[in-house]
Amino acid sequence: MESEQDRRRYPRVSLNHVTVEVYSNLGQLTSPEFCFIINVSENGMLFKAELQGSGYEAGLLLRLTFVLPDHNIVIRTDAIVIHVRVTELSQYVGVQFKNLSLAEVTLIRDFISKSAEPSD
Q1: Which residue ranges form the domains of the chain, and what is each CATH number?
Q2: CA distances (Å), 15 to each of 32, 42, 61, 69, 95, in order?
Q3: Cα diameter, the chain
Q4: Residue 98 and residue 91: Cα distance in Å, rounded?
Q5: Angle at CA 88, nearest 5°, toward 94 and 54?
Q6: SS3 of residue 106 by DSSP
Q7: pLDDT one-digit tens code per residue, 67-77
Q8: pLDDT value, residue 62
Q9: CB of 78 within 8 A of CB of 24?
Q10: What count of Cα atoms within 13 Å lies in the side-chain half-sphere of residue 54?
Q11: pLDDT tens across 37-59, in order?
Q12: What is the pLDDT, as a whole number, of residue 2?
């Protein structure tokens, strides 16, 4: 049986201690919520939000701002919530990026490629 990772079109890289600023594109949030990124791919990410934070649900349009480790380029993009998994303490929110520029896609792709390479 094929695993979920094998079915993914884009490889994902886990991140530690990297945050994303999450804004609602529809005006529900007046200030950003800072969430830890769990993993990122060239077309989306999974982040961890506090349970008491915003009520994320599939189909919600968000605005995200983040910086990849070892880069000084800020990535700002719209994203749509694809799925939400709620635990006792947190919400795990999977989003798909929308309207990334070619330069941003290339930056993320290169970061993932370098992060996935075995280190010597």
Answers
A1: 4-116 (2.40.10.220)
A2: 20, 14, 23, 8, 16
A3: 47
A4: 21
A5: 50
A6: helix
A7: 998 888 899 99
A8: 93
A9: no
A10: 27
A11: 999 999 999 999 987 666 789 99
A12: 41
